[in-house]
Each structure stands twice: as structure tokens, then as C-alpha cells.
Design a protein that fits this description.
heterodimer; A: mainly beta; Alpha-Beta Plaits; SH3 type barrels; four-stranded antiparallel β-sheet; B: alpha/beta; Rossmann fold; 39% helix; Aspartate carbamoyltransferase regulatory chain (chain A); Asp_carbamoyltrfase_reg_C (chain A); zinc (chain A)
């Protein structure tokens, strides 16, 4: 295996095993592009035994909540999260799809009230495999393709 | 248990809830027949917020509130309200709840009733939100079926017409999953019931038959629930013209039906049911309109907490 081309971080979070091409979306979902603290590193399209190709996101000096991390599962269910302290992995967990999704997903129904009034969009996960969610407001069901387009 | 509760979606109703509303409506209908008018909601005010017109539903709610002895305020189109000045739904609801004890809302946006219920501290009843839900219509449909047959279990029910865009048939089929019924989905190919609903019905143990040929199944049915093919829901008028007038229920078609078949329709109708059917023993669509009053009386009384 070729040497990993991304610098190790002392403290922070490493999101590994992101399907290739989804790394930027992970950064957007977690609003990491607005980071005002440490470095944000993205390794895209690197070799992976498990996935063939994968993306990796490293966030220096920031620890994500489990709920925050679970949002990633919507686009990268294979992702793993490593909490790094003093250059060592102190904690590692697999992401999981939450039962409810609030605030990160927009309803695909243009006539849904959540797209017109001040409110936080909310969805219930009705199936994890394949991924299907139902809008709390208009009750419309969205499948994976629509979910990804509206993150 | 019911005081302060919102009525937003038929999905929120258990079988026990449905049966309780139907029983309460039945009691109220009898009591109303006996006494002429009731006073359960005396001193209570209903606000009917109709952001789009719907004569039947609005009048039915207003009639129900008057029959309960309460009074009504409200509007029947958004253009005469502060919405025209750009007021948000949230603010309209917060304002109106200062004047009333219960709100009934009809709104063109899907999910508007759910949002209104979250904002208001008083009960909110959904009278139709876009093409999403119309739970009181579903409850009155169930009430009509139960009044006609004394039961819902064991019936073979045909849903006919626009099953793709028809809000009433989506909600009714959802509610019928609480019962032991067989559903016949009869529509043109273009207007079939959405796949996810058919799958859900099957998953919940309902026997579902799909066909476009009414005459081949009419002899099986106990209830034929016809719907209008809604021109306004079609993104393309050419598509509408392909299916316009697909079904016409007339006395000739009904010759193949059981003697006891009941024909229902949420109304308004265009040409789906010939007027000659109105006077036949099969027609119960005007009784269905009447059912709206006791059912809505029950919902208003229960959510206001004046009936238990």
C-alpha cells in the first residue's frame, strides 16, 4: 500500500472509509468549511482495502458529537469515526443512521410548508436499507437519490 | 384524553381512536335528532381559516359548531386577510388563537396544518393541506360505510378513478388498514395508486387487486368509492385528456352490481356518476355529505374537551 499522503493530527477527529467522492459533502453537512480553528484535511480517492477507493476527512482540534456524526451516515453509511488524542486513536465508532433527522435535510416537495415558512425541517427514517425518510410536515416519502440531492 | 388534541393526519389515529370518534359521532347524531340542537360548545368559538376555498368542508364545520351550540369566526379565502400583506402562517395562527378556542385550517401548502398545530396552544383540525391529508373526510367516509353496513370488517371496497393524485383515497386506504377489508383499486393505467402506498397496504395485510376494468369487478364489491379525475392536478393537460371520462357509473353499469352495493363519492362530481343514479338504492353520497356534520361535531367536541 502506498504511504498515506495526509498529515497526522495531534488532537481531533478523523472520518475514515467515506465512499470516494463523498468527502466534500461530509464537510458541507458538518459545516466544517466554516471552521475557524485548526486545519481541515481532505484526502480524496485514496486506496482502500475495504472500499477500493475512499475519502478521508481530518479535523484538527474539533470533536464531533455522536448525533453530528450520525448525519454523515446519510451519505456515507460505511464511514468510521476516530477520535484522536495525542496522535493516538482514543475512540473509534461506526456511524449509524438516526431515527429522526432535523435541520440538515430539505424537503424535496416544493409545496411543503417547510420550504416556505420559518421552521426546522424534520424527517423520520422509515427504512435504513434502502434509505427512506418521511417528512414530518408534508408526509412525503423521500428515497436515497432525493435525500442526497437535498442535503 | 382528547382535550387539546390536534387532528392533523389519519396516520396519527389508532383503530381505537377512529372507533371512538365514530361512536361519539353516532351518539351525537341520535341526540341531535332527538333534541334538535345541542349546547355542548356553548360559549366556545371556532375559527375557520380557509386559505383556499372549500364550500362543503367549511360549511360542514360551521354547521357542526352551530349544532353544538358554539359560534364561528373566520375567512374563506386568503386574499381577504393579512396574508396578502405578507404575514406568515405562524403569525396568523398566533393571532387567531387569541380569539378562539379551536382552529380549523384549510391551506394549499402540504404540512401547513402540522405547522399550525405546533404553533398554536389550542387544538388545530386539518381541513385539507394541499394534496396531503384530509383526515376529517376519511373519518366521515368510514362513518358513512359503518352507518350503511353496521360494520367495516369483511367488506370488499372498490376505489375508483384518480388514485394517483386523489388525497381522499390515499387517506381512506391508509385508515382501512386497521380493518379486515379487501381493496379493489380501479383506475386508468396513468392514474394508478402510487406504488409505495400499494406496497404499504400489502405489508399491512390488506388484500389488494389492481385493475382498470370496472365492469369485471363491480359484481364483487360492497362499496364503490368513486373519485373525480382532477384536471387541476395534472401537470400536462394532454395527459388529462387521455383519461378524462374514463369511468361513468350509470344504471346500466350498476345492473352488474350486488343489490346491496353502496356508491360513495367525496364530491364534487363531474361526470363520474350519472345523475340517474342519485335516486337509486345504491347512492349514499349525499348521506356521506351529511355524515360530515356528526363526525365534525364529535371532533370539535372532543378536542374542545366539552364531550368526553
Amino acid at each position: 500500500m502506498s504511504e498515506l499522503k495526509v498529515t497526522a493530527i495531534k488532537e481531533g477527529t478523523v472520518i475514515d472509509h467515506i465512499p470516494a467522492g463523498k468527502g466534500l459533502k461530509v464537510i458541507q453537512i458538518l459545516k466544517l468549511d466554516k471552521l475557524d480553528g485548526g486545519a481541515l484535511l481532505l484526502a480524496a480517492n485514496v486506496h482502500s482495502k475495504k472500499l477500493g477507493k475512499k475519502d478521508i476527512v481530518k479535523i484538527e482540534g474539533r470533536f464531533l458529537s455522536e448525533e453530528e456524526v450520525n448525519k454523515i451516515a446519510l451519505i456515507a453509511p460505511s464511514a468510521t469515526v476516530n477520535i484522536v488524542r495525542d496522535y493516538k486513536v482514543a475512540e473509534k465508532f461506526q456511524v449509524g443512521i438516526p431515527e429522526e433527522i432535523s435541520g440538515i435535510l430539505k424537503c424535496a416537495n416544493p409545496n411543503c410548508v417547510s420550504n416556505h415558512e420559518y421552521t426546522t425541517p424534520k424527517f423520520y427514517v422509515i427504512s435504513k436499507e434502502p434509505l427512506k425518510v418521511r417528512c414530518h410536515y408534508c408526509e412525503r416519502t423521500m428515497e436515497e437519490k432525493e435525500i442526497l440531492a437535498n442535503l | 384524553m382528547w382535550k387539546g388534541k390536534d387532528v392533523i393526519s389519519i396516520r396519527d389515529f389508532s383503530k381505537k381512536d377512529i372507533e371512538y370518534v365514530l361512536k361519539t359521532a353516532e351518539n351525537l347524531e341520535h341526540e341531535l335528532k332527538e333534541k334538535g340542537s345541542l349546547e355542548y360548545a356553548k360559549g366556545k368559538i371556532l375559527a375557520t381559516l380557509f386559505f383556499e376555498p372549500s364550500t362543503r368542508t367549511r360549511l360542514s364545520f360551521e354547521s357542526a359548531m352551530h349544532r353544538l351550540g358554539g359560534s364561528v369566526i373566520g375567512f374563506s379565502e386568503a386574499s381577504s386577510t393579512s396574508v396578502k400583506k405578507g404575514e406568515s402562517l405562524r403569525d396568523t395562527i398566533k393571532t387567531v388563537e387569541q380569539y378562539s378556542d379551536v382552529i380549523v385550517i384549510r391551506h394549499p401548502k402540504e404540512g401547513a396544518a402540522r405547522l399550525a398545530a405546533e404553533v398554536a396552544d389550542i387544538p388545530v383540525i386539518n381541513a385539507g393541506d394541499g394534496s396531503n391529508q384530509h383526515p376529517t373526510q376519511t373519518l366521515l367516509d368510514l362513518y358513512t360505510i359503518k352507518s350503511a353496513f353496521g360494520k367495516i370488517d369483511g367488506l370488499k371496497i372498490g376505489l375508483l378513478g384518480d388514485l394517483k393524485y386523489g388525497r381522499t383515497v390515499h387517506s381512506l386506504s391508509e385508515a382501512l388498514t386497521h380493518y379486515d377489508v379487501e381493496l379493489y383499486l380501479i383506475s386508468p393505467e396513468l392514474l394508478r395508486m402510487p406504488k409505495h402506498i400499494v406496497e404499504e397496504l400489502k405489508e399491512r395485510g390488506i388484500k389488494v387487486y389492481e385493475t382498470s376494468d370496472l365492469e369485471s369487478v363491480i359484481g364483487e364489491l360492497d362499496v364503490l368509492y368513486a373519485t373525480r379525475i382532477q384536471k387541476e392536478r395534472f401537470p400536462d393537460e394532454q395527459e388529462y385528456l387521455k383519461v378524462k371520462g374514463s369511468y361513468v357509473i350509470d344504471c346500466e353499469v350498476l345492473k352488474k352490481a350486488k343489490e346491496t352495493l353502496k356508491v360513495m363519492h367525496p364530491l364534487p362530481r363531474v361526470d363520474e356518476i350519472h345523475p340517474s343514479v342519485d335516486s337509486s338504492k345504491h347512492a349514499i353520497y349525499f348521506k356521506q355529505v351529511f355524515s360530515g356534520v356528526p363526525v365534525r361535531m364529535a371532533l370539535l367536541g372532543l378536542t374542545l374537551g366539552v364531550i368526553e
